[in-house]
Amino acid sequence: MTKEASGNRFEQVDEPADDAMTLSLKREGEKMSGVVTCPAAITGGRLPKDFASDEMPLKDAFRSAIRLANEMRVPLVVLDPDGLWQAEWGTLVREPDETDA
Question: What's the confidence (pLDDT) of residue 75?
Fold first, then answer.
C-alpha cells in the first residue's frame, strides 16, 4: 500500500459526472482497463474541449486520473460497475443519494 493513496477517498458513481473528472474501470472478458474523461466546462479554460483518454491498464488509468485531476484542479469520481477498484488506491465510497433524504 502506498502512503500517498492509503488515506484517499474517492466517490463511486453510476455514470460519468458532468461536474468532475471520471475514472471509468471496466472488464471485457479477461481484459481489464480504465479510461479517464473530463468535461472541458469544469477546467476553467485549461481544456479547450472535453477529454477522453485511450483505454489503458487499470493502474495506469488510476495514476493518470490522479495526475490529471491534480493538474486541472478538478474533483475525481470513479465509475466501477465490475468491482475492479484496488484497495491500495484508497477507499471507494458512495455519497448518499439526495433523493433518499
Answer: 96
